[in-house]
Amino acid sequence: MPDSLERKASALNGLIIVGACALGAFEATRPWGVSIAIFMGAGLIFSGWANFCGWYRILSPRGLSRSSQTAFWIGGREAHLTGLNDQYNAQISEATKLANESTSDVEKNKHLDQVHRLRAEHQMKRKELEHAVY
User: Fold this and answer.
1) For the chain, where are the E strands, in sequence order?
2) What is the reported pLDDT for 32?
3) pLDDT tens-digit readout, 43-92
4) Which of 54, 69, 99, 104 is the most exposed place for a label (fewest CB within 10 A)?
């Protein structure tokens, strides 16, 4: 089963909360443990309320377009999907245009292979993004 961003974020949240509970078990570190647990709980409440998760930004794969990253910070999931779609649609259109303008079959097939690769990559990233925790 592939590691999803949701699983990674959940594991990190759990690890931090268990660590905070361990700190809270000792009298000398109790204020730190309670403070961290409250902070993480408040973060989880905010994440559910605002449909935004900071772990996604930290753990997400690099290489998304600048407009897609900006859309993520401003508009959340739907804006991020729109930015991702725009990025891939532009690349696919350019590769299709080059394939149609190609004079040789070898060059045309090269561009068409690039179109197929971009479509598959787009679907994979879109699926991952749709299932990500925000």
Assistant:
1) none
2) 93
3) 888 888 887 778 777 777 665 544 444 444 445 666 667 777 888 888 89
4) 104
- 56: number of Cβ within 10 Å: 20
**Burial degree of 83 (CB within 10 A; 0-12, 13-18, 19+):** buried
**CB-based contact 76:52 (threshold 8 Å):** yes
d(CA 83, CA 48): 23
Question: Is 112 strand, coil or helix?
Answer: helix
Distance CA 58, CA 81 (A): 18
pLDDT of residue 34: 92
- Please give the Cα distance from 66 to 90 (Å, whole number): 14
Interhelix angle 30-50/5-24, nearest 10 degrees: 150
